[in-house]
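Input.
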Amino acid sequence: MAWFLDIADKVDVVDRKGEKLFCPPHCFPHKIMFTKPITDEPCHFRRAGWRMLHHLSFCFILRCPYRRRMKEAYKKDSK
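Output.
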């Protein structure tokens, strides 16, 4: 992943056993759609509200199976 995408408000999401979850293979929004997909990006959320809104839309487009868990972790972190 490009260094400029590694923004400091990124928080990894883990499952209930404490194991890291990973996003489904994807290119969008990181790079051109017709290249090799990213397969090792940890599931995460953003602490900045405006970034999180953006992030939720990408997770919806990707049909991420961990979207609900990510939202729970975000709400818990926001308290």
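The radius of gyration is 12 Å.
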